[in-house]
Amino acid sequence: MKGKRAEAMKRLTALITALLLLALSCPASALDKGLPLQEAHKVHLYYIDSTKDNKSQVRLWQAESALPEVDAEINGIASAFALLYGEDLPAAKNTGDKNSRLDVEIRYSRTGLTWLSFLVQARTSYHRKLTGQAIASRTYDMTTGERVELEDIFPADGEAWSVLAEAVREQCTASWPDEAPDEAALASLCDPECLRQLDFTLHGMSLVIHIPAELLYPERFSLIEVTLMYPDIRPLMTGKAQQETDNLSYYKTCALTFDDGPSRGNTTKVLTSLMKAGSRATFFVIGNRIADYTDQVQREHDQGHAVAPHNWHHGTVTKSSPSALRAMKGKVDKAMIKAIGLPSTYDRVPGGLYPRMIEVKAGWAYIQWSVDTYDWRGLSAKKVLSRVQKLVADGDIILCHDIKDNAPIYAETISNWLAENGYMMLTIDELFAKDGVTLEKGHVYFRCADGVVTKK
After folding, report:
1. Structurally, how many domains does the chain consist of?
2. How far apart are CA 413 and CA 401, in angstroms?
3. Comparing C-alpha atoms, which of 97, 110, 117 is closest to residue 205?
4. To the nearest 10°, the Cα dihedral for 183, 185, 187, 191?
5. Could you tell me the residue range of the domain that residue 271 belongs to?
6. The domain spanning residue 175 has which CATH number?
7. Which among 191, 203, 356, 168 has a CA at the least distance from the CA of 279?
8. CB-hemisphere CA count at 13 Å for 71?
């Protein structure tokens, strides 16, 4: 009897071992899509503030990742920027509206299971006006510390380079549509040798090439973010790059959105929280606030978030005339182009009252939500997070408001919880691009789960 039991246990052990080996050999999509944040992707950011004799201020960010050699390079670039651009800051009259600042920020973003991108940005501002920007990017395999170049993503002799050149030309020319870019500078950027050296980062569903706008448009100091969505370019990639950008096989996705801003205090803190969490969001800004908060809108854009309108004003659309509603897009676009060089393509209506906007043909696609955090009710950060934990599912759009006092707290806690629980945070543009959904004027979108965009 003991011999039979021992033999049965051996067979059971062999079966369990075989199943474990099978599980380890299967792709993530065959198991449980929604892998937690990988150790290779974990980053801690912190900053050091200093004030110069002329009262100008420098904030220098530093990073701690899984690899000390990566930290040394990224922090070395940031520190060099701080020395170079902090030297000649003009005097500040005070630390409020009359400030003089250098912010050396470190953005990071993950893709796949091991690749991690960093973008170091040195942004100078005077009296809240952006006066200059310098950038440097790095992407690494965080298991080896090896740097990932564009030539590691696309075969050297492949057709991807002509696709990239076309995207750079098209998207740079589309910026500030009433102005013509410096044609010689644009031709230089599109040259094959220069193209291979451009700064880029990899995100949940996109490769972004970062170009300081000043190179093409004098006195424009924000970034031009040339965005290529993975579904459009993955067939052109190397095998390793295809594996590291196959995020739909590894993670669930959702989009975190913020309404009603910008605001001077809370929006700034929300942006800092998102940067610390390595998270990208979509900000629905009120159009008539853009001019007074241009620096905030530029920072939203330059930190990789999507920026879209929350109508021209926050008034109830049922009380506005059809002509006033149809005039909104033109007014919004004029303000957005002046701030970040881009017009709007989609909108979120205050109160979610999109039927009125569709009825009068106001000219946008309309983004609703599928998870309401109720933060607008003044809930605590803990309760806001709890609602997300209970309600969120793959493809959801999460509604928050960056003007709320608790927003900086739950912007970070929501982002961290989602990452730890198998979600890749996408912008609205990425969320719909992952399923090949084109946002159309006069249509409303609540989520994007395998191409389904209707209410849950």
Report:
1. 2
2. 15
3. 110
4. 180
5. 251-445
6. 3.30.565.40
7. 203
8. 15
Neighbouring C-beta atoms of residue 346, cutoff 10 Å: 21
List Cβ neighbours of 118 (8 Å cut-off, separation of 6 or more): 63, 74, 106, 107, 108, 137, 138, 139, 140, 201
Query: Which residue, 207, 208, 222, 167, is CA-closest to 189?
Result: 167
- What is d(CA 319, CA 157) in angstroms, rounded to the nearest whole number? 59
Residues 186 and 298 in one domain: no
In the block, residue with structure tokens 């928050």: 400
Per-residue pLDDT, 36: 96
**CATH number of the domain bearing residue 433:** 3.20.20.370
15 belongs to a structural domain: no
> Which tokens sit at 181?
């870019």
Region of 379 (left: φ > 0; alpha: ψ -120 to 50; beta: rest) is beta
Q: Are 98 and 126 in contact (CB under 8 A)?
A: no
Last residue of a domain, one of 210, 245, 280: 245
Q: What are phi and psi of 172, to 5 degrees?
A: -70, -40
For the chain, 456 residues long, the average pLDDT of each consecutive 10-residue run is 47 38 38 85 98 96 98 98 96 86 98 98 97 98 98 96 98 97 98 96 98 97 98 98 98 98 95 98 98 97 98 96 98 98 97 97 98 96 98 98 97 98 98 98 98 96
Q: Is 64 in the same domain as 183? A: yes
- Whether the pTM exceeds 0.85: the reply is yes
Helix/strand/coil for 271 = helix
